[in-house]
Design goal:
This protein is of the alpha/beta class and 213 residues long. It has six helices and nine strands. Helix 5 links the parallel strand 4 and strand 5.
Length: 213
């Protein structure tokens, strides 16, 4: 097995260290955000219309969003870099499938997935590394399947690093992120920008994209 890049080791170690606290803090994370739930519901509806087939939440953490998508009728699995997060997800949701893995090297067949959700899971990826993620997403996504990205939006600034509470993260201009995904065969279906909640620092971006046939 290839030795993981240093930023992957750093990210996994950082989330392992705070996994229990993180899982407790974000157990009901979607309750206060109807717009976030609406974006997830739209994704789920599109995935269901393609018929039966697996969907993956990549960077699933303790499985909160994975379980929400299950409740929306999806056959879903969760993948995360942090072994401790995966242990917590399995404990909280024993009826769901969770695996340890890196989003840029998935143990999935070409075109296996009907859909992918990346819910704030590429935020720690250095910009130079992000193309490999989109290439892998496109590889495992069936033609016509959908990708939902959630991220911190840069509010008119270029790609910007910031001091995320776990480890360094990046804010992206929504147009630039959409353009980068487009280079790897994703066509934009829709977008949503949400202004920060009273206890949040940054605007939130959401991109719903379709893998071109």
């Amino acid at each position: 097995m290839t030795e993981p890049s240093s930023y992957l080791r750093t990210t996994a170690d950082a989330y392992d260290a705070i996994a229990v606290l993180y899982a407790d803090l974000f157990r009901n994370a979607l309750d206060a955000f109807p717009l976030d739930r609406a974006v997830l519901a739209a994704f789920a509806e599109l995935a269901r219309t393609r018929g039966p087939g697996p969907v993956a939440e990549l960077g699933c953490g303790p499985g909160t969003v994975t379980a929400h998508l299950r409740d929306l009728g999806l056959d879903i699995l969760g993948v995360d870099l942090s072994p401790v997060m995966i242990d917590l997800a399995r404990e909280a949701h024993p009826d769901l499938r969770f695996e340890v893995g890196s989003m840029d090297a998935l143990d999935l067949a070409d075109g296996e997935l009907n859909g992918i959700v990346s819910w704030y899971s590429v935020i720690h990826t250095p910009p130079r590394e992000l193309p490999s993620y989109f290439a892998e997403f496109r590889r495992v996504l069936a033609p016509g399947g959908h990708l939902l990205l959630a991220f911190f939006e840069s509010e008119g600034e270029p790609v910007t690093a910031f001091d995320h509470k776990v480890t360094t993260a990046f804010r992206w201009p929504i147009d630039e992120l959409a353009g980068l995904a487009g280079e790897f065969g994703f066509a934009e279906v829709g977008r949503m920008l949400r202004e920060p909640h009273e206890d949040e620092r940054f605007r939130r971006g959401h991109l719903l994209m379709r893998g071109e046939k």
